[in-house]
C-alpha cells in the first residue's frame, strides 16, 4: 500500500496539542511510582490468585491516572501522551498486567477523539471523567468478525471475541464491527457498551502463562442491542484515525521496557544481598565479581539505550497527534515505522533481561516464592501479541524503498 492510499477528508481536530512540560512529567511519574510501589508489595500473590483486578483498577482510579489524557475542559487532567506512556513504563516495573490494562485504557478511551465526531467528543470525555471509567476493548482482528445487523434505528450484535483486554473489569468496552443492512451497510463502526449490557457475556476464560491480571478473556454477544447513542463513529483509513494503532504499539514498547527495568531492579536487589562469592572468582562477594558486573552492565546499558528511544518517540507522538486533521499519510507511516523499530528492540531487551537476570542471581532465585519468573512470564506472553519478525519486515521494507505494510489494527 502506498502512503497516498490513506488519503481521506481530515477530521477538524483531536484533543491534544503541544508537549508535556517537565513539571507535568514529574507530577505523573511520581503518582505512577506511588502506584507501582503499592502494586509491587503483593504482585506475585495477586498473580497466583488470578482474580479479576477490580482492586487494582480502583487504585488506578483513585490515583487520577485513568483521567490523565482527558482534556481539562471536560473534567480530566489535560495531560499529554508522553506522560501517559511514562506512567505505563513505571507501573510495568512492578506489574505488567496492570500496565497493560492502563495502556489499553488510554488508547481505548482516546477512541473518542480518533473516531468520534468533534460535536460528540465533549459528552463522551465528560462522562468518562465524571464516572471514572476504565475502558476495555473487544476488537481482536484475528477473530471472525462480529455480526452487527441494522435493526430499526439501531443494531443487534452477535458473535464472540477472544483476547478482549480489560473487558471483565472495564466500566465500558470499545467494540468494532461491520454493519450489515440498512443505510450504513458495509461501514465499520466503533461503539461503546457498558460491561453489564443485556446479552453481553464475560466468559472469564483468561488463564495464561503471564499477564494473568489483564482481564483479557473472551466476550460473547447474543442479540445485544446497540443504539445510535452507543456509537462513537466510523472506523476509517483517514491518517489521524489510524494513528491509534501505532499509539498502542508505542505503549507496548514502553511496558516491555518497564518489565526489563523491573527485572533489573529485582535482580540487583537479590545480587546485593548474596553473601560470599563463586569459589573461583577471588572476589569477596558476588556483587564484586567482574563476571557478574559485566552481565549486569551489558543488560543495563542496552536497556538504557531502548529507554532513550522510547522517550524520544513518546514525545514525538504528541507532535504527530497534535497535527490532527493535518496529519499526512506520509507522516503517519513514518511515525508508525519508527514505533515498529522500538517494538523490535523493546521486545528483545525485555525477553533478554527477564531471562538472563538469572545468570547473576543464581539457582536460589528460581524458588517460586522469589517471583523473578513473573517478569519473564509477562513479557513472553504479551510480546506474542503480533509477531515481532513482521515488525522487522515493516522496518526493513520502509527503509529500503518506502514500502508500507497493509493497513490494519497491527500496523
Automatic annotation (TrEMBL):
SUPFAM superfamilies: Acyl-CoA dehydrogenase C-terminal domain-like, Acyl-CoA dehydrogenase NM domain-like. This is Monooxygenase. InterPro entries: Acyl-CoA_DH_C, Acyl-CoA_Oxase/DH_mid-dom_sf, AcylCo_DH-like_C, AcylCoA_DH/ox_N, AcylCoA_DH/ox_N_sf, AcylCoA_DH/oxidase_NM_dom_sf. Residues 251-386 form the Acyl-CoA dehydrogenase C-terminal domain. GO terms for molecular function: monooxygenase activity. Residues 32-130 form the Acyl-CoA dehydrogenase/oxidase N-terminal domain. Keywords: Monooxygenase, Oxidoreductase. The lineage of its organism: Bacteria, Bacillati, Actinomycetota, Actinomycetes, Micrococcales.
